[in-house]
Every structure is written in structure tokens, then in C-alpha cells.
Amino acid sequence: MRYKINSAVAYTRKMKVKVFLRWLFYSLALVLLYSIMSCGAFKLWQPYMIFALAIGVSMKEQEFSSSIFGIFCGFMLDISSGTLFGFFAVCVMPCCFITSLFSRNLIKVNILNHLLFTSGTTLFSFSLYYLFNYVIWSADGRWLIVTKILLPSFIATLITAPLIYWITKFIASKFGLEQNENLDEAVEEAVDKAEEKRKSKRIINVDKKNKYIKDLEKENSRKRSLPEERNIK
Questions:
Q1: Dihedral sign for Cα atoms in the order 58, 62, 65, 68
Q2: Cα dist. 112→152, 166, 215 in Å?
Q3: Cα 66–chain centre separation
Q4: How many other C-beta atoms are found inside a 10 Å radius of the C-beta of residue 155?
Q5: Mind giving me the DSSP string for 37-87?
Q6: Mean pLDDT of the chain
């Protein structure tokens, strides 16, 4: 398997339509989750489901597109949370890039890894949020922020993450992403096998040529030795 970043793939018109529909449904899911987060129905146990969505999409898409989608997810989190615009975008974008890179080259795409990367992204973002908004300013009641807001939200995010994972998996499989990846892998394996076969044939031809030359030299030496034997007799 070759390690790659943003490999170029030639898409047919049908595949382009599927790509468009896939990203359309990703965007609709983002808007829906933003609306759920903004309504305030969960109060202190507010799940940050957009983290799980960003990671779920990153596990299915390429690095560059995952990073761009992570930036938009961060912007939505900034608006719904009332933080400095761009703060969560800076936190989520590198997490999406790393998730996509690992998913395409090193790890399997499954619900366990989705939970691990979602928890890591949420913990990383909440830690920076707590650091820049409360620790640096020595705000009073810092531990209440952790125990009453951040920790319940972290737990709620992990509880809802499996649902987001299955949604992104359904969208990706429905619109041909997994089939395209399998096709790319099959093409790569076919190319590798063809190269190995070509090399083995080349080695066999060289061995045959060397054997033929050796046999020819033996035959020539035998013919030369015949007149000498006759003269001796």
C-alpha cells in the first residue's frame, strides 16, 4: 500500500454527481446539528455533536477536503458557543487533517477509532478553550466550569458520537465513496502485481539468456576439441 496525500482521481460525470450529493448531505447534517446545539434543549449536558461529525467525515474523505470541512465545523461551533470567531476552527482543522491522514494510511475506519478521535478532538478543543478563557485570566470558579459545563458536555458528546458515525457512514456508502476507494486500491494492487510480474519475467529471460550462452560456449568448446583429438590419434 502506497502512502499518499490527496491522490488525484479521474471522476466520471456520475461520480461527480455523487460527490456533490455527498457533500450536500454532509452540509445539511452540519446545519441540522448546529440548529440542535443552538436551541439549548440539553442545558448543561450539551453534546458538541459537530465534533463527531467533523471526525466522521474526515475518516471518509481526503486530507484537504477534510480540513476545509473542519474549518466550517469550527465556525459553526464558534457561532453556537459564542466564542471568539475562528477559535474552534483553529482547533478542529488540524484534528481533521490528522484523522483523515491516519484513516487513509494507518488505521481502520470503525466506530472505536471514531470514538477515540472524537474524544481526542473534543478534549483538545475544550482544553484550549479552558486555558485561554479561564486559566490565563485567573477567573473565579474555574473548577465549576470544568465540572458543571465542560465535563458533562464531553460525556454527552461521546454518548451521541456513535449516532453521528452511522450517519456519516451511511452518507459515504450511499453515494459511492467506499466503492471508489476500493476501486482505487484494486487499481493500485493490479499495478503493483503487474510490475512484479514484469520484473520476474525480466529476471527469467536473463537467466534463460545466460543459460543459452553457457550451453553455446560449451558446444563451441566441444567442437574445437574434436579436431585436436583427431590429430592426436
A1: positive
A2: 21, 12, 63
A3: 8
A4: 13
A5: HHHT-STTS---HHHHHHHHHHTTS-HHHHHHHHHHHHHHHHHHHT--TTH
A6: 80
pLDDT tops 80 at residue 34: yes
- Say which amino acid occupies 53: L
Q: Looking at the whole model, is its pTM more than 0.85? A: no
Q: Which amino acid makes up residue 108?
A: K
In this structure, what C-alpha cell is assigned to residue 138?
Answer: 485567573
What distance in Å separates the CA atoms of residue 203 and residue 187, rounded to the nearest whole number? Answer: 24
What is the four-CA torsion angle of 88, 91, 96, 101, rounded to 10 degrees?
Answer: 170
Contacts of residue 217, defined as CB under 8 A and 6 or more positions apart, other chains included, come to none
13-175 classified as CATH 3.50.20: no
CA nearest 59: which of 169, 157, 154? 169
Q: Is residue 201 over pLDDT 80?
A: no
Name residue 57's amino acid: V
| CB atoms inside a 10 Å sphere around CB 60 | 22
pLDDT beyond 60 at 209:
no
* Separation of alpha carbons 21 and 36, rounded Å: 22
CA angle (127 as vertex; 48, 93 as ends), nearest 5: 65
CA distance 136 to 141: 13
Q: Tell whether the model's pLDDT for residue 180 goes beyond 70.
A: no
Q: In a 3-state reduction of DSSP, which class is residue 110?
A: coil
